[in-house]
Input
Amino acid sequence: MNTRKKLLDLLEEVLKSRDYNVSTVAELPSAVSLRGFPMAVVGEPKLVVESAVESNVITYDIVVKMLIQRQKPADKSAPSLAIIEQDALWVAERVAEAEAVVGLTLRELAPIAGGVTHAGDVAMAMSLRVELFRVE
Output
Protein backbone atom coordinates (compact mmCIF):
# COMPACT_ATOMS: atom_id res chain seq x y z
CA MET A 1 0.00 0.00 0.00
CA ASN A 2 1.39 3.43 -0.86
CA THR A 3 1.44 6.44 1.45
CA ARG A 4 -1.36 8.29 -0.39
CA LYS A 5 -3.70 5.29 -0.08
CA LYS A 6 -2.72 4.84 3.56
CA LEU A 7 -3.78 8.45 4.28
CA LEU A 8 -7.11 8.05 2.46
CA ASP A 9 -7.84 4.75 4.22
CA LEU A 10 -6.97 6.26 7.61
CA LEU A 11 -9.28 9.24 7.07
CA GLU A 12 -12.10 6.98 5.90
CA GLU A 13 -11.73 4.71 8.93
CA VAL A 14 -11.71 7.61 11.40
CA LEU A 15 -14.64 9.40 9.73
CA LYS A 16 -16.72 6.21 9.64
CA SER A 17 -16.02 5.62 13.33
CA ARG A 18 -17.68 9.01 13.93
CA ASP A 19 -20.69 7.85 11.80
CA TYR A 20 -19.89 9.95 8.73
CA ASN A 21 -20.63 8.47 5.32
CA VAL A 22 -17.48 8.99 3.27
CA SER A 23 -17.55 10.09 -0.36
CA THR A 24 -15.25 11.46 -3.00
CA VAL A 25 -16.15 14.64 -4.88
CA ALA A 26 -17.15 12.60 -7.95
CA GLU A 27 -19.43 10.31 -5.90
CA LEU A 28 -21.14 13.13 -4.00
CA PRO A 29 -24.30 13.62 -6.12
CA SER A 30 -25.33 9.97 -5.85
CA ALA A 31 -23.93 9.47 -2.33
CA VAL A 32 -26.29 12.07 -0.85
CA SER A 33 -29.36 10.11 -1.86
CA LEU A 34 -27.86 6.64 -1.34
CA ARG A 35 -26.04 7.09 1.96
CA GLY A 36 -27.42 10.26 3.53
CA PHE A 37 -26.03 12.55 6.24
CA PRO A 38 -23.76 13.13 8.06
CA MET A 39 -21.33 13.00 5.18
CA ALA A 40 -17.65 13.67 4.64
CA VAL A 41 -16.23 14.48 1.22
CA VAL A 42 -12.54 13.65 1.11
CA GLY A 43 -10.48 15.50 -1.46
CA GLU A 44 -7.46 14.16 -3.27
CA PRO A 45 -4.25 14.46 -1.19
CA LYS A 46 -1.74 16.98 -2.58
CA LEU A 47 1.91 16.13 -2.10
CA VAL A 48 3.91 18.86 -0.38
CA VAL A 49 6.85 18.83 -2.77
CA GLU A 50 9.59 19.96 -0.39
CA SER A 51 8.86 16.89 1.74
CA ALA A 52 9.28 14.46 -1.15
CA VAL A 53 13.07 14.39 -0.88
CA GLU A 54 13.12 13.29 2.78
CA SER A 55 13.79 9.60 3.13
CA ASN A 56 11.29 8.47 5.75
CA VAL A 57 8.50 11.06 5.85
CA ILE A 58 6.12 12.33 3.20
CA THR A 59 3.69 15.23 3.66
CA TYR A 60 0.26 15.80 2.14
CA ASP A 61 -2.25 18.62 2.25
CA ILE A 62 -5.82 17.36 2.16
CA VAL A 63 -9.26 18.94 2.49
CA VAL A 64 -12.20 17.17 4.09
CA LYS A 65 -15.66 18.72 3.81
CA MET A 66 -17.96 17.63 6.62
CA LEU A 67 -21.71 17.99 6.07
CA ILE A 68 -24.83 17.50 8.17
CA GLN A 69 -28.46 17.95 7.21
CA ARG A 70 -29.73 21.50 7.66
CA GLN A 71 -32.40 21.58 10.37
CA LYS A 72 -33.05 25.33 10.53
CA PRO A 73 -33.03 28.33 8.19
CA ALA A 74 -29.62 29.53 7.00
CA ASP A 75 -29.34 32.21 9.68
CA LYS A 76 -29.69 29.59 12.43
CA SER A 77 -26.89 27.24 11.40
CA ALA A 78 -24.59 27.99 14.36
CA PRO A 79 -25.67 24.91 16.39
CA SER A 80 -25.05 22.64 13.39
CA LEU A 81 -21.67 24.25 12.73
CA ALA A 82 -20.73 23.69 16.37
CA ILE A 83 -21.46 19.97 15.97
CA ILE A 84 -19.35 19.75 12.82
CA GLU A 85 -16.53 21.71 14.47
CA GLN A 86 -16.47 19.31 17.41
CA ASP A 87 -16.51 16.30 15.05
CA ALA A 88 -13.74 17.79 12.90
CA LEU A 89 -11.49 18.38 15.91
CA TRP A 90 -12.16 14.81 17.07
CA VAL A 91 -11.26 13.45 13.62
CA ALA A 92 -8.05 15.49 13.48
CA GLU A 93 -7.03 14.22 16.93
CA ARG A 94 -7.65 10.56 15.97
CA VAL A 95 -5.68 10.92 12.73
CA ALA A 96 -2.80 12.60 14.60
CA GLU A 97 -2.71 9.64 17.02
CA ALA A 98 -2.42 7.03 14.24
CA GLU A 99 0.77 4.98 14.22
CA ALA A 100 1.76 5.97 10.68
CA VAL A 101 1.33 9.71 11.32
CA VAL A 102 4.43 11.69 12.27
CA GLY A 103 2.65 15.05 12.55
CA LEU A 104 -0.61 16.80 11.75
CA THR A 105 -1.44 20.48 11.42
CA LEU A 106 -5.04 21.65 11.25
CA ARG A 107 -4.49 24.47 8.78
CA GLU A 108 -8.07 25.71 8.52
CA LEU A 109 -11.56 24.86 9.70
CA ALA A 110 -14.12 27.14 8.08
CA PRO A 111 -17.85 27.13 7.29
CA ILE A 112 -18.84 26.67 3.67
CA ALA A 113 -21.40 29.34 2.79
CA GLY A 114 -24.56 27.87 1.29
CA GLY A 115 -23.55 24.28 1.94
CA VAL A 116 -22.28 21.78 -0.62
CA THR A 117 -25.24 19.75 -1.90
CA HIS A 118 -28.70 20.26 -3.33
CA ALA A 119 -30.14 18.47 -0.27
CA GLY A 120 -29.73 21.42 2.09
CA ASP A 121 -26.70 20.89 4.28
CA VAL A 122 -24.54 22.79 6.71
CA ALA A 123 -20.86 22.23 5.95
CA MET A 124 -17.34 23.03 7.05
CA ALA A 125 -14.06 22.51 5.24
CA MET A 126 -11.16 21.13 7.24
CA SER A 127 -7.72 21.59 5.72
CA LEU A 128 -5.03 19.28 7.11
CA ARG A 129 -1.31 18.93 6.56
CA VAL A 130 -0.40 15.36 7.43
CA GLU A 131 3.12 13.97 7.71
CA LEU A 132 3.33 10.19 7.40
CA PHE A 133 6.04 7.59 7.43
CA ARG A 134 6.73 6.77 3.80
CA VAL A 135 5.23 3.52 2.55
CA GLU A 136 6.59 2.02 -0.66
